Amino acid sequence: MFKKQIEIPSAEQILAESPVPASLAQLKRERDRLLIDVITGRSDKLIVIVGPCSAHEPKPVLEYVDRLGKLNERVKDRLVLVPRIYTAKPRTKGVGYKGMFSQPDPEHKEDTLKGIYTIRELLLGALRESGLSAADEMLYPENFAYVEDLVSYVAIGARSSENQMHRLVSSGIELPVGIKNPMSGSIPVLINSIYAAQSPQVFKYHNWQVETNGNPYAHAVLRGRVDNYGNDIPNYHYETVMQVLEGYCATEGGLRNPAIIVDANHSNSGKRFEQQIRIVEEVLQNRQYDADFRRIVKGFMIESFLVEGCQEHDYVYGKSITDPCLGWEDTERLIYDIAEKV
Predict the structure, then answer these.
(1) Which of 321, 332, 328 is nearest to 55 (CA)?
(2) What domains can be seen in the chain, in order of their start residue?
(3) Which run of H or of E encompasses 263?
(4) Torsion sign (Cα): 142, 146, 152, 153
(5) N or C: which end of the chain has fewer CB within 10 A?
(6) Distance CA 128, CA 318 (A)
(7) Cα separation of 165 and 169, whole Å?
(8) Angle 68-71-76 (CA atoms, 0-180°, nearest 5)?
């Protein structure tokens, strides 16, 4: 049984009620183009999607993004920095804090309508204060419409990459969409997900039958895999990257814009956040070693916040309440190092 609690206005209503100012809309379009140019190979910069595991409190996120914006000014000739402002949190067992979208205050009950307004204000504030448009995870496909005017990069998680609706909605997004390998690590499944997202589709979305043209900027994200015994198995190594490249090339009709983003945390690091530094360094070394590896690896995802580690409740300002993250000092050094080795 479903017990109705709060009626949620349509995305069109909320976007009309809280529109993005013209100057910021133009800035966001410019940021979209920077990312698209990297994915398509028109730019040889690297994308670095960096920020907390989940955005649970606006103030420290805005402080983090402000620092990132200042850092971006010093590395923008080589990198495209994208703040990770993830507003929905997948849960392995389906319970627990599910992110700002549904629970704007992690210590209080769910309030989706308030959550929508909160994340729009947060994403808009981040763009205004730092000049950086954000990445968010599309955990619930129908929710994307509420933030589509404010994000420049969309992530599809490992638990979602095999889901039909995620693939279909991705086909209508005109932004880079990073699709993670499934939890099993299957490369054929990952390639099929990208194929579906790059293909034209017809389906029901927000009470309409819609038609899409396919998204040529849909691409792979390698985040490691989990074996049948629950062990984390990394897949950022040279051999797996080459297998993904072969999968791109072997697809009938070909896939557009072969690209890989390496997620340095999750099963690649075994959630040992400090290992992200070593993983990024190894990938950078492989980019120097092999021209094909260099062409297809377009950047990194890094989990980072003001204070390293994690906590169960929001006691320490700027510390993750979900997965553990690098602290700011290590993050800053790592970003400078990536810029130096592009």
Answers:
(1) 321
(2) 21-321+330-341 (3.20.20.70)
(3) strand 260-263
(4) negative
(5) N
(6) 20
(7) 6
(8) 110
